[in-house]
Description:
Blueprint: E1 2-6, H1 15-24, E2 29-32, H2 37-44, E3 51-55, H3 59-64, H4 69-82, E4 87-96, H5 103-123, E5 127-132, H6 135-143, E6 152-154, H7 161-169, E7 172-176, H8 186-194, E8 200-202, H9 224-235, H10 239-253, H11 258-263
The structure holds zinc ion.
Zinc ion binds at residues 5, 7, 33, 92, 205.
Amino acid sequence: MFDSHCHLDRIPHRPDAALARARTAGVKQFLIAGVEPAQWRSALLWAQPGVFLSFGLHPWWVSEHPMDVEEATANLELFLAEHRPQTHAIGETGLDFRRATGSTIQDAQRCSFERHIAAARRLELPIVLHVVNAHTEALRMLRSCELPAKRGVVHSFSGSAETAAEYNRLGFRISFSGAITHPKRHKLHRAAASVPDDMMLVETDSPDQTPWERHPAPNEPAFLIDVISRMAILRDQSPEEIARITTENALRLFECDERRELQTAPTI
Ligand SMILES: [Zn+2]
């Protein structure tokens, strides 16, 4: 199983033990999503076979630092040039209008998003998208720019089947998280049932988004099995099939070549 979006580096208590528990449970690959400049270098310490990294500026960070976007995105590009062998994606980036109601902050999120798209295009990397309460605007922006060849993934998808299909049409995969384990998220359940096999990924987003039946425990990658089991029910496929397809999709999207990881020791 491949946990296509987690924050192993932010699990508060013994993240190394959480990684070991996940491996025992059969989760063998992980993508650690980038959130802010202070976290990029510490994330490098996690680079190892099976643990892949993405770097970016989370829309929440942008909301808190709207005046720093230009400098931070310039620093991101320098950082990526220096650490290209350890980089498998760019992000998180995107729009979160639940956390940004004023136009200054929304504009800062748009500016950061545009710069991440341009960097992904230049560096030929996929993008990890965080979009909440802003799918219409995110889709408008994606349609009006030149997209990176590898496109990317909408992480912890929260929209409808129709919205998922719009992202799919642009070449973006959809990643489902513990949100689908909530019994009342019917619109999201329909989306999870509708995405084509080759466009779906699964994730925990741990330590956030604990699956329904694990509450109140903090989330961890070992709980990916809950997301996969729920996907299997919603899609009328076996958990093994969901696990195999989503692992293959993530390995392909993030170009996870284990040999490349072993050859390149991280430089910190
Ligand atoms: Zn995340």
